[in-house]
Amino acid sequence: MRLDVVTIFPEYLDPLNVSLVGKARHRGQLAVHVHDLREWTYDRHNTVDDTPYGGGPGMVMKTEPWGDALDTVLADGYESGAHAPALIVPTPSGRPFTQELAVELSERPWLIFTPARYEGIDRRVFDEYATRMPVYEVSIGDYVLAGGEAAVLVVTEAVARLLPGVLGNAESHRDDSFAPGAMANLLEGPVYTKPPAWRGRDIPDVLLSGHHGRIARWRRDEALRRTTRNRPDLIEHCDPKAFDKKDREM
Ligand code: 6GU
């Protein structure tokens, strides 16, 4: 997969050199190209924003730097053999970024991110590129960030860990909170490792029982408990039929 990010704060994307995403790049599973939007400004002050038509507070990012930047990024990418780009536009007005959308994006070969500062980017930029490629406007939650760069880090990490071979153990997706299956829409419960006793606190006995059925049922119950407490809105979406089947297997 190829990722391009166009931003006025390239250093904000430095974490993409670290940890899982950094390793995936190192192994050649992911190519990341970060571009400074101001390379496509031609005035003395490297202007990227201007006052909004119709009035109102704040500033709007201008069409020309974004258009020239995206044209260059697209030409370079195609030249290097990339294909089927999609534009990912981080914005608090976007559709919610979910695990389902992360899976969809992880199946695309080329993502181009346009994190904005100020009040956002002149709409015509997206209308223009939407004629050539899918445009996903995504929000990472119901709060307002000062810019989209942190959202790029969030989306990239969620997508990169789904790429083939990036996570050491492919099984580790299976029990993810929000993964499909019997535990769909349940949050993951607590986890434990050695030592079995710490500061007078023992791990739950069932985890030492060696009884896979009982362990699975305990995990399911803990997941239900945690979901009820932290995300009651998710409970109505879980599938009781899937649980009944699991219970019969025990
Ligand atoms: Cl993607 N961008 C900004 N600026 N704020 C947000 C967001 C994105 N998602 C939630 N809040």
Short synopsis of the structure:
This protein has 250 residues and is α/β, with parallel strands linked by helices. The chain has eight helices and nine strands.
Blueprint (SSEs and pairs):
Layout: E1 2-7, H1 19-26, E2 31-36, E3 49-50, E4 60-61, H2 63-79, E5 85-96, H3 99-106, E6 110-113, H4 124-129, E7 135-139, H5 149-160, E8 197-198, E9 201-202, H6 212-230, H7 232-235, H8 240-249
Parallel strand pairs: 1-2, 1-6, 5-6, 5-7
Antiparallel strand pairs: 3-4, 8-9
Helix pairs in contact: 3-5
The chain binds 6-chloroguanine (6GU).
Residues 90-92, 138-141, 143-145, 147-148, 151 line the site of 6-chloroguanine.
Main location: cytoplasm
Keywords: Cytoplasm, Methyltransferase, S-adenosyl-L-methionine, Transferase, tRNA processing
GO molecular function, one term: tRNA (guanine(37)-N1)-methyltransferase activity
Folded structure, characterized:
The chain is an alpha/beta fold. It folds into two domains: 2-160, Alpha/beta knot, CATH 3.40.1280.10; 174-249, tRNA(m1g37)methyltransferase, domain 2 (Trp Operon Repressor, Chain A, Orthogonal Bundle), CATH 1.10.1270.20. 34% of the residues lie in helices and 16% in strands. It contains eight helices and nine strands. The strands form three sheets. It has a five-stranded parallel beta sheet. A two-stranded antiparallel sheet has the order 3-4. It has a two-stranded antiparallel sheet with strand order 8-9. Strand 5, helix 3 (99-106) and strand 6 (110-113) form a beta-alpha-beta unit. Helix 3 packs across helix 5. It starts with a strand and ends with a helix. The mean pLDDT is 93. It binds 6-chloroguanine (6GU). 6-chloroguanine (6GU) is lined by residues 90-92, 138-141, 143-145, 147-148, 151. InterPro entries: Alpha/beta_knot_MTases, tRNA_m1G_MeTrfase_C_sf, tRNA_m1G_MeTrfase_TrmD, tRNA_m1G_MTases_N, tRNA_MeTrfase_TRMD/TRM10. Its EC number is 2.1.1.228. Its main location: cytoplasm. Belongs to the RNA methyltransferase TrmD family. It comes from Streptomyces griseofuscus.
